[in-house]
Amino acid sequence: MRGYVKKFPPCRGACPAHVNVQAYVCLIQMGKFREAVEVIRRDLPFPAICGRVCFSPCEDACSRINIDQSVAIRSLKRLVADIEREQGRVAVKPVPKKYDEKVAIIGAGPAGLAAAYELAKLGYPVTVFERMPELGGMMRYCIPDYRLEKFVVKNEIDYILGLGVEVKTGVEFGKDITVDSLKRDGYKAIFIAIGAQLSAKLNIPGEDLEGVIHAVDFLRSLALGKRLNIGETVAVIGGGNTAIDAARTAKRLGAKRVMILYRRSREEMPAHPWEVEMAEKDGVKFYFLVAPKRIIGEGGRVRAVECLRMRLSEPDETGRRRPIPIPFTEHQYEVDMVIPAIGQVVEISCLPPEIIGKNGLIEADPVTLETKIPGVFAGGDAVTGPASIIEAVGAGKRAALSIHRYLRGEAIEEERIEETTWVKDWSLLEKKERRYESPVEKPHLSFEEVRAYLERVQRAARFEAFRCLGCGPCAECLAGVDLCVKDKAIVDESKCVGCNLCVEICPFGAIVKNESGVAQVNEEICKGCGTCAARCPKEAITLENISTDKILSALSNALVVRVV
Amino acid sequence: MEAGLRIICFICDWAFPEWSIETPPNVSVIQVKCIGRLDPIIILEAFARGVDGVIVVGCKWPDCHFIDGSLYGERTIRLLKKIMALTGLETERLRLEMVSPIENRSLSSIVEKFIDDIKDFGPLFKGKEADKELLFNLQAAEQAVTWSRLRMLSGRERKLTEKVNVYGERISQEEYDRLIEEALEEEYIRSKIYLITKGKPASVEEISRRIGVDSFLVLQHIVTLRRKGLLGVDRIEGYTPLYKALEVG
């Protein structure tokens, strides 16, 4: 695949892990939910997790936006993954080990696990080292339960482990193991995916008072099952998704008033708009254009946050509007608890100093993820700074590919991705409302109701999937899935009279006439529906698998069976 | 006798998920990728082989996987109904059902209703003298739809009635229907002439008697067929020329 131009539909191109979106949406259209999950698993080991918490760049890229709304890709993914989990999936078989080179992966977060998954599929013996008692990293410890259930995470990780990945938990990198010790133990390649685990400091007076707990620590200690004293009034500082998670969790744990203090305005919030909406529904109050100046304590405990009002500057070269404090606008919010959530930093103390870059992150090649130490690769939040699950999975996949090539002694080259859409005429298409969104809360149903409910949901999901325009070529959509055989219209040039009929009726504009006036099928666009073949006046167009003869023979077969 | 009715159900691959395809035992389901794929010949051939009813299930627009493939399929069925009326077949024996994935309909309920509706017609071939005539008519219709005139006209139906032709003119649906019926009638007679003369050479008078069409009209069609290179003079008996169909290579 080196130096190869890949043609992807926009959704697949936008996804950092390049999940074959069009294929599984297509399979959902056909009602083949199980196969859809299989297709997702080729590129992404976490269908259910991403179905819940992915920020879905695929939906932002969806061509359907040109007409109405994007296809609800994430919700569909969640549904098929949930159906598979609840109906029980086929047991995973360990992949036989094809190679001898051992690979060590440090950190069992999305990046590490995705790399382990890819390498295990390739046939490498992989060992994952994790400091915490459970696998999953931020997915397990920092995403609250109401957004991502722990059993879902466990289920997905079990699948990866089922492929024959070895795991060592409770091992701390930098203390129990180091790069050198791993190399001594015979690991030929190391992938460092330790993530960004430490909270960024506010650097204001009063940060070490009792009642100030950083968002990541707050969420992590809850996930570990610790009991925390939640105050009556909680102030969360920051505007990212972690801030929203912390605020909503605090509200659920019984805080009466929860406020989010953010120094820019709503438009600049890094959190996803729907998350903000949900938080507002939960009763979280938002205060914009305020930044904390100091935290005021009383007897060692937090009493209030003193804030300054801000205004936004004109957009600078990078297009960002910087907040500028307005002098003499100090005001106080009376709170019992402050949760700063202004970002995370990488725990660089455990790393070998050679690979630490400038801004407190690991320095690695952006494409190959190689670090300065040969055989050591790094990816995920530790390289990019706090990002998302799907980006981490993308990094893990790239790292796995690089490690494979490194161990096989191949050169590492980049592949270029081209986005394609082949829809003939937007105006031809009718607007369709979104018809399926994953449920916010699962309904409580009796045994009899479940069947009807499931059927309704599945029908709605198929209906939603039908909104997909199928921008990519047909080969993209189901190639190699063994369910759809590539079948293209073939023009018999000796029969074609150049009447232009097929050119007019092809729904995808796949047929054009060449200079000599003979129709030519663009194989990348043709989806093999056979609309042209059924109408060609000279019967010059045929399709291999659904030729008229084949349908007729199916007909006679059916009739023969009837008679007997 | 309803168990004896043979029903063929052509369904679009995308219309129903595989797990929900259940039909009564006397119904055979044939999956075609899209109902746009259905060549009129296929359905006429099904009737010619003694199928008592054909039901076509496709996806309601705009849920067609192939954007407007099902709209073309719909036009084909409409054309077929016109042809069936000409051949003397009950048009009710062919039904098009458009479904949408959101609807709570099962394939078996659609098919059962169809069987229920055509039950009274009984089997297509009743084992009488009329069967031969019907079979001949069906074969003639099949011949007619393989010729390019009907295919050309029916394939362009959507373009002519919904957009404009190359001269920028747009014709109404009624106008189009009139055109296609005209063409259909002519082509149907021509294909009958063609089929008769395919067996053994026949004179105008014989053909006229056989298909019950005025001899002057038959001669007109023969002239057209000869111009198209489909018919030739076999020999002349006395003053009467006998015509014979030519193989088209």
Structure description:
The complex is a heterodimer of chains A (564) and B (249). Chain A has 564 residues and is of the alpha/beta class. Chain A has four domains: 138 residues, Alpha-helical ferredoxin (Fumarate Reductase Iron-sulfur Protein, Chain B, domain 2, Orthogonal Bundle), CATH 1.10.1060; 158 residues, FAD/NAD(P)-binding domain (3-Layer(bba) Sandwich), CATH 3.50.50; 145 residues, 3-Layer(bba) Sandwich (FAD/NAD(P)-binding domain), CATH 3.50.50.60; 75 residues, Alpha-Beta Plaits, CATH 3.30.70.20. Chain A is 33% helix and 17% strand. Chain A is built from 19 helices and 21 strands. In chain A, strands 4-3-2-5-16 form a five-stranded parallel β-sheet. Chain A has a four-stranded parallel β-sheet with strand order 9-8-7-14, covered by helices on one side. In chain A, helix 7 runs parallel beside helix 15. The two termini of chain A are 53 Å apart. Chain B folds into two domains: 120 residues, Rossmann fold; 99 residues, Winged helix-like DNA-binding domain superfamily/Winged helix DNA-binding domain (Arc Repressor Mutant, subunit A, Orthogonal Bundle). In chain B, helix 2 crosses helix 7, helix 7 packs across helix 9 and helix 8 packs across helix 9. At the A-B interface, helix 16, helix 18 and helix 19 of A face strand 2, helix 1, helix 2 and helix 5 of B.
Task: Briefly characterize the structure.
The complex is a heterodimer of chains A (564) and B (249). By secondary structure, chain A is of the alpha/beta class.
Keywords:
heterodimer, A: 564 residues, alpha/beta, FAD/NAD(P)-binding domain, 5-stranded parallel beta sheet, 33% helix, B: 249 residues, Rossmann fold, Arc Repressor Mutant, subunit A, two-stranded antiparallel ribbon, 48% helix, 15% strand
